[in-house]
């Protein structure tokens, strides 16, 4: 009698304890009574009738992520592998639909992703796929929302996380990008060289202009100095020809002195004998004198004017001339 009571008491205790159960945060529990849906229990301590009620299953209410890899072909016949990440969760108010209407939600989502991606990508070229991947993700999300809401699932976001072309296409794209960058670098280098050349040419032109201006000013000052030297020599009784010859000889000796001042100079000025300066002076004076004489003779010849003689009628023909009045 005592043993049976203890057994009944222990069984009663276990049955009572099995009536209580806990539901974790961000999850729900489906309760079935005699195999039929009875209720949905949310987080916290819950109670069920032993033997009559049972826990049919737990539903996760957290945001889940499913990565789907699709192999498809672009408009320009390039095969690519695209990775689409779908973030979704069970709608708390539709736990019944999520548990009973759809047995394999991951497979269903994967099928819809395949359908949308393989419908959108073949419309685009490879470069456009990279540029418009956000549009593809939006199209996938829109299609999934329309389909999965019926089953109690909410699509939070869809992301195209990776686009992987064929290895040969990838290598070709890398070569194209490298060639474009080399072309751009060459254009920048050419533009830089052009700017340097133009700047150098402008600097040289400005330098030559200033140099020419300096030479002109120098020659102008030299000419002014020569004029003053000639005037000074004229004042002491030396005419212009002799003064010019003397200045030239003076410059000749200045040149010799400048050449001799450079110890490393290999330049030789001929003639360079002491008699050369005197000969040069005499020759120039003689040349100026001869030139003046020739000029005077040409002036005298130009002053002589030859008067033409009047034409005289020949004898014996005077009678042949008949006045117009007699005819």
TrEMBL record:
Pfam families: Band_7. This is Band 7 domain-containing protein. It is a single-pass membrane protein. CDD domains: SPFH_like_u4 (cd03407). GO terms for cellular component: membrane. Residues 317-327 have a biased composition (Acidic residues). Gene3D superfamilies: Band 7 domain. The keyword Transmembrane helix applies. The lineage of its organism: Bacteria, Pseudomonadati, Bacteroidota, Flavobacteriia, Flavobacteriales. Residues 298-327 are annotated as: Disordered. Residues 18-177 form the Band domain. It is found in: Membrane. Its main location: membrane.
